[in-house]
TrEMBL record:
Any one cellular-component term (Gene Ontology): endoplasmic reticulum
Biased composition (Polar residues): 1-11
Protein name: Nuclear segregation protein BFR1
Regions annotated as coiled coil: 22-83, 393-449
Entries under InterPro entries matching the protein: Bfr1
Listed Low complexity bias regions: 319-333
Region (Disordered) location: 1-22, 255-291, 314-338
């Protein structure tokens, strides 16, 4: 993320977002509402005129009466229409049955030359007379006898056709009766009454045409006023919608600006945190670079000078570890450089008493032979080093030897321990850097998920 530009005061530049001014909107809406009130007054006047322009009550009453009669006639016409429709449906049903029955008879009779039983009987009688006359040849006689036998058999089959024919005759009679009934259910009289009433209504409407025209004119004006009011209401809604859109845009910009400021604040806090971490790392590394056991060694030199006034503190050796200004960081391969102006401070152990080589020391030396005493600070220092406290003057030499042995052991181990301290500091710094990098990555992932 790029750094935020700063102004002369050192603070980030902030975008000014103007809030939409609803004062002009309220004034314009108020003007439209006043116009609507004027239109309402005009509308009330027109309604009053409409109430005055009315038809004669007697005419209105007669028109209502005629309209009621028309309604009754329409109901009668509907009833008649339904009755005729029901009769026609019956006629269609019977005619369908009749056609089916006639078709069945035609199917049976089409195979023979005879149409009915009378024709068969006539043929049988004719052949019988020929046979009885005795003038036929034997072959013709046999043929005629055989034919009469077949005709008599056929006549039995035609018995069912006669019954079917009776049913056909019944259907024809029923159709004739239904048609007669249909002719009786006529709509002519009702239609004549309907036309008569409608004619009277038309006459009333013609006589009342001027009143109707005047009322229609007033209705037209009232409708026009309604259109104007609707247009002004639409204009008010449009103004409010436009203002709402501008206000929503304003809120969106404010939200974006707030998010931007939050991002800038997070970035600033992150940079400050990184800077603080860098300073802490430098401080930890600087403290770790101080030669190990410096406090203990200085304390031993002071104790040696206390117990042996002739002891002279040697010049300190230059440690390669402590003077190394470029220390490589372990773990991430980065290099942490010590600033050039850093001065490693070594806290010198204060003398347990002043003037160890003065006359006071020689007097003290003489007094030890009489009454051996040790300063409280010396007792504490020996305790910190875990060195036994001399209880008499004869034990001082042993204490000095122990101090020197301890000094040598610490000096021998000093460089190695210093390196260990530096490596520990590096590992701690690397761990903190890794944890902070992970926290930053998780925060960035959370922001992406929210977006």
């Amino acid at each position: 993320m790029s750094s935020v530009a700063e102004n002369s005061t050192g603070r980030p530049n902030r975008r000014f977002i103007k809030r939409p001014d609803d004062k002009a909107l309220k004034q314009e809406i108020e003007g439209l509402k006043n116009e609507i009130k004027k239109l309402d007054l005009t509308n009330n006047e027109i309604n009053a005129q409409i109430n005055k322009v009315v038809t004669d009550p007697k005419v209105i009453e007669r028109r209502k009466e005629l309209q009621g009669q028309l309604k009754e006639l329409v109901g009668k016409q509907s009833t008649i229409k339904n009755e005729r429709g029901a009769i026609l449906d019956q006629i269609k049903g019977v005619e369908a049955q009749l056609k089916r029955k006639i078709s069945e008879i035609q199917t049976k009779t089409s195979k023979h030359a005879f149409k009915n039983v009378q024709e068969i009987d006539s043929r049988v009688n004719y052949l019988d007379k020929l046979v009885d006359a005795g003038d036929l040849k034997l072959a013709d006689e046999r043929r005629y006898v055989k034919e009469m036998s077949s005709l008599r058999k056929l006549r039995k089959d035609f018995g069912s056709i006669e019954k079917q024919q009776e049913l056909i005759d019944q259907d024809k009679a029923k159709i004739a009766e239904l048609k007669k009934k249909l002719n009786a259910v006529q709509n002519k009289e009702v239609q004549q009454q309907f036309e008569k009433i409608q004619k009277e209504l038309d006459q009333i409407n013609d006589d009342n045409k001027s009143v109707v025209n005047k009322r229609n004119e007033l209705f037209g004006k009232r409708n026009e006023i309604k259109k104007n009011k609707d247009a002004k209401y639409d204009q008010i809604r449009k103004l409010r919608a436009e203002f709402d859109a501008e206000f929503e845009k304003f809120k969106t910009l404010m939200t974006e600006e707030r998010k931007k400021r939050e991002e800038e604040s997070k970035q600033q806090q992150l940079e400050e945190k990184k800077q603080k971490r860098k300073e802490q790392a430098e401080k930890q590394l600087s403290e770790a670079s101080v030669p190990a056991f410096t406090t203990e060694i200085n304390s031993i030199h002071t104790l040696l000078a206390y117990f042996d006034p002739s002891y002279v503190k040697p010049q300190p050796k230059k440690s390669a570890t402590a003077t190394n200004s470029n220390v490589n960081s372990s773990g991430n391969g980065r290099k942490i450089e010590m600033p050039e102006d850093v001065v490693v401070l070594k806290k010198e152990q204060e003398s347990f008493f002043e003037g160890s080589k003065s006359k006071k020391a020689s007097k003290q030396k003489k007094s030890k032979a009489k009454n051996f005493t040790v300063e409280p600070d010396v007792i504490v220092a020996l305790g910190d080093l875990s060195i036994p406290l001399p209880t008499q003057a004869d034990d001082v030499s042993s204490t000095i030897d122990t101090l020197k042995e301890t000094l040598k052991a610490l000096e021998d181990k000093q460089e190695e321990q210093t390196k260990v301290n530096i490596e520990k500091a590096k590992a701690k710094i690397a761990k903190l850097e890794a944890e902070e990098d992970q926290a930053e990555a998780e925060a960035a992932e959370a922001e992406t998920t929210e977006a």
